[in-house]
Amino acid sequence: MREIFTVWKKEIQDTLRDRRTLFTAVIMPIFIMPLVLVGSFKLQESQQNTIANQVAVVALSDQSTAPSLTDFLVKQDKIDLQPAPADFQQAIANGTLQAYIDIPADFEPSLASDQPVTLTVYEKSTDTKSATAFQKVQTAILLFNESVAATKLSAADVNPAILHSVTVAANDLATEQERGGYFLGLLLPMFIVIFSIAGGMYIAIDVSAGEKERKTLEAILMAPLSRLKIVSGKFLAVATTAIVSVVFSVASMYAAFKIWPPNLGTALTFDITLGTALLMLGIGVILSVMFAALLLAVGIFAKSFKEAQNYITPFYLLAILPVSIFSSIPGFKPPLALFVVPPLNAVFVFKESLIGETSSSHVLVTLGSLIVASIVSIIIATKIYSKESILFRD
Amino acid sequence: MSLLSVDHLSKVFSGKNGDITAVDDVSFSADAGEIFGLLGPNGAGKTTTIRLIATILKPTSGTARVNGHDIFKEPEEVRRSIGMLTTDVGLYDRFTARENLRYFGELYGMQGEALEKRIEELLDLLEMQDFADRRAGKFSTGMKQKVAIARSVIHDPAVIFFDEPTSGLDVLAAQTVVRFMQRAQQMGKLVVLSTHEMHNAEKLCQRVAIIHRGKLVALDSVQAIEQRTGTSLLEEAFLKIVRSDTTQHGSQKPAFQPKRKSIFTAQGIRIREKIFTWWRVVILILALGYVIYQFTMRK
Hints:
The complex is a heterodimer. Chain A has helices spanning 2-16, 19-53, 67-75, 88-93, 107-112, 128-155, 176-207, 209-214, 217-222, 227-259, 274-301, 305-328, 344-354, 360-385, 388-391, and strands at 56-60, 79-82, 99-102, 120-122. Chain A is mainly alpha-helical. The radius of gyration of chain A is 31 Å and the shape is elongated. In chain B, the strands form two sheets. In chain B, strands 6-7-8-3-9-10 form a six-stranded mixed β-sheet, sandwiched between helices. Chain B has a four-stranded antiparallel β-sheet with strand order 2-1-4-5.
């Protein structure tokens, strides 16, 4: 036991002197988690505000042919009516104009004689401002339609209220926590998984393939302790670093939410309960243990640092890609079978917890599967470490 | 009973191109207070023999005893009795010389006052006090060599193996190693020198074993071998023996290819980086799949 501790202590001490590990395992989670989460909400918040407050710069082909519409548009405070430019396509392309309404010559007569009129509205959908302006123009035209119809109905002695015979009263059954949690669920679980891998990634290569490359492996194999003890010490060191990384990321994320709670002004609350944070911590720790063993196995198998990196990059992507895909499927309800698949199950459990729908059976299946996967990974790593054909591979 | 006795030791590596017998029925013994030479051309099986004795590799057949301990029955005791120095000096770069020594001392079960005293002793013996507390990453080859020597004997082993200890070293660093071997002999250790450089062997060794293509082809005192071959230089005797062995057994390719690419060989590693195209394809497909997915889901 003391020998395992000796190896563990050495690897931890070694890694603490390496800025790279310190950076990926400690600094990154501390700063990136709050930055990404709170930052992205703040960004979304400010974007929503700018879209709502944006004044659309619009021009009519000829204001004199449509005085009623011109008057109406001038009264809209989110529309800035400009005189028609010489070349409207050019103006939209360079952003001085955001939408352009082509008025047919018979606009007012058609309106007066109850004939439908088609207005051509030009926009550039790839330009966010132009696309927003287009929507504002559409809304304005809709309102203009209503006002024309209302005037005509009143003239014909009909109550204009019939235009709104049926209205919809929206009532969202999702609680504020659910709606907020849904947004959080898109990003947050993925980052916990990323840190549980990234935290141990560098040290895992360093203590395995790095030792081959530095040529210290033979010296350590000469020492009178079993290979199982060596690999246990190394595994514990990798797991420690990864766990530290997860602990820091969950803690800093939790702190960030408490200190700067994001506020989108709408009926969404973004909050993480202590229970959710603890669940993330617990599952994140087991996840780190599993990845630590897998990364170490890959590292031992490789001949050099470079080769280990070559193996670990696809490994990392294979772990992250399904997670990122499943996280972004809207309204995806995972079947129970998917709760057996790490690390997807962790993501699903995190998401459920964030919207306040924690299911104990899902948590238990996930925990069971992660623990089994961890044990299998540890066995694989130790088996590889005791195989001389792999240890002394050319 | 000899301090080191090797008894019909064999090692077969199974590779893609069939089995390779790296060590073929080798037997010899050596005693305390001598420098025993293990000579042979590159790839003859010297390093593998040493690794088998040191219990780093498992023999296919045969056995060996070190300091009375059998390599199968008491591998940990065997390792405690052995120190090993190779040219490939690997140190932990972010650790100081002292910390490197301390870690290995701890791995050998030493601790506290006794370990610190032993480290101090070795630092003095090898004149390492000047750089004892500097990190090993920036050491010169000579400095690294000294730390490696100290590391290999931190547990005061009865048998010390030197595997090509001077190849690639400059004159001064090589001199340090040679002096240390002599000092170890004076202290009553058994020094096993594995090398293909005959002038060092001639100068240092009393008895030598010549290994060629995994087989022991000569085992005697240096003088006896020179007399038998009618030469006055070990180098010439060595060449004669190796040549006659080659003509007797045909000049087929060496039994064991020199492990030049090996991670532990003196000449260092040649990084043969395979380009794993299969995983790049997998990533490409996954990445494309992801992009397409995102594209279709977004309105």
